[in-house]
Amino acid sequence: MNARSRPAPVRVAAVAVAVGAMLYLEFAPRPGHGDLLHVLYDAGHAVLFGVVALAALVALPGRPGDPPARRRATYGTAFVIAAVLGAASETMQFFGPRDADLWDLARDVVGAGAFLLFAATFEAGVVSWPRRPHVPFAALARIVAVFLLLLAFVPVAATATAYGFRNAAFPHLMDFESYWESRFLETRGADITLAFLPEPWNEDPTRLVGMVTFRPGGYSSMILREPVPDWGAYRALRFEVFSTLDREVDLTVRIDDEIAIRHPEFGERYQGEFTIGPG
Predict the structure, then answer these.
(1) What is the dihedral of CA 93, 99, 102, 107, to 10 degrees?
(2) pTM attached to this predicted model
(3) For 131-180, what is each residue's pLDDT tens digit?
(4) Can you tell me the distance from the alpha carbon of 144 to that of 152, in angstroms, rounded to the nearest whole number?
């Protein structure tokens, strides 16, 4: 054992932590229904790989108190190990049930760098510059590390804000006037753009509506995901449709409950068909 290394049991425990974190990432099921859970899970990549990077740092030869140049090299090696493991994890997902995601790799790298940079500030001389002894490099590095980690959680904050606006707008589900609505809107075989009210329907010339163009073939649809789940105080769903076509078309409205989304074979849902004429 290197005289300056940590005790073998500590290093073995660090390796076990890193292996456990990687196994969790590869085999733990993703959270179920809900965008907020999904983005929180994705942001967790940064934290998980921060832990992996620190575990690699502890497992590597050397320990605090080594010459600063050597410690910087150890920190750099730990970062490379974490980045390589992140890349390997995403590569393996090409061959598994999940999809590889370069944004996940970016979160892995950011998390590893942020954790290591923050940890390095507590070791004398590692984050410093002898020619500028009065500059608080350690404090600046901590600010940078926290900022980098917070970047990974920006989508979580944006999604949580969208949920807040969605809840505040209820019982209005969508009016195409607010930016947050796009997070809950999905199309399949269709295109949707914002447009001003058509002239025959022109109650307010400044009001925006969603113009949906259904592409021919297949089952084209516009989907409003994750509305406020409790509709117990209401008995009807009201919406307005204006058709610019010169012929009648059939429109199907379907409402799935949570059970139907998770277990289509057991769930109950409403499905109604309507004929929409011109105008």
Answers:
(1) -80
(2) 0.77
(3) 666 667 888 989 999 999 999 999 999 999 999 999 888 888 888 878 78
(4) 13
